[in-house]
Design a protein that fits this description.
Mean pLDDT: 82
Helix content: 10-25%
Number of strands: 8
Shape: globular
Strand content: 25-35%
């Protein structure tokens, strides 16, 4: 396939030239990742970034034009990403690091990008099926996720399925509203093992909405040299949003 970067950088690579300062420790990315701007707006969340990135915006979805220096988090302790994020989390009630969004996570979501459907006549942007809220991300499987020799633990794949299903559910209204619900069910099928060090694409899509119930399906894929998707895992899940989040519920 086109994922030729089998080495695991573990935060020591120069990273992706298109990444923001806070992502300068990304591993090398596969060629297909250059298309990721087409996946939608980059989702920036305070507890991942280390600052209240959404305070001056209508929501937490920030266009790439607003990336980089305009939203580079700094708190007087330098540019060390882990320190900045850890301090922010401690000051805002978290007790540790994020399972899949931390610089030291065994399997790490490097970024999410969200795409919303066009407003329907009722003014809502929920969407279902082909006109659905879609969340797409890059995920790095580091050597710390290893199980069988050279391959990552199936639990690492299940963890990111849980994460993307939940965050896709948080985007159901057409704006990302973190922690406005909870995931109650995740079903994952492990199709193909992931080699240590690989970066794959993770995608979640809202399948249907029933009152406060949000049904999400997800895929973990690689792309070969022809642009064809190679499926590593599939999943579906159910998110229950809190009362009052959606109109009339």
């Amino acid at each position: 396939n086109s994922n030729h970067h089998n080495g695991d950088c573990d935060g020591d690579c120069d990273g992706d030239a298109d990444a923001s300062p806070m992502t300068k420790k990304w591993p090398s990315l596969p060629m297909w990742a250059t298309e990721r701007r087409s996946w939608g707006k980059r989702l920036r969340i305070g507890e991942w970034e280390g600052c209240d990135v959404g305070k001056d915006n209508d929501d937490n979805d920030i266009d790439d034009d607003d990336d980089d220096e305009h939203h580079h988090c700094s708190n007087g302790i330098g540019d060390d990403e882990a320190q900045i994020v850890d301090q922010y989390r401690q000051e805002n009630g978290w007790k540790g690091s994020d399972l899949v969004h931390s610089e030291t996570s065994p399997v790490r979501i490097l970024e999410y990008r969200v795409k919303y459907p066009i407003h329907n006549p009722e003014g809502r942007r929920r969407g279902q099926g082909d006109d659905a809220v879609t969340l797409t991300g890059l995920v790095h499987f580091t050597h710390r996720a290893e199980s069988h020799r050279g391959f990552c633990h199936g639990g690492s794949m299940c963890s990111i399925m849980d994460d993307i299903i939940g965050w896709t559910g948080f985007c159901v209204t057409g704006d990302c509203k973190p922690w406005t619900g909870f995931t109650v069910q995740v079903n994952t099928s492990l199709v193909k093992p992931v080699p240590v060090g690989h970066v794959l694409k993770i995608r979640g899509m809202i399948e249907k909405v029933e009152r406060r119930k949000v049904y999400v399906r997800a895929q973990l894929v690689d792309l070969n040299e022809h642009g064809e998707e190679i499926v590593h895992a599939t999943g579906d899940g159910l998110v229950i949003v809190n009362r009052g989040v959606m109109d009339g519920h």
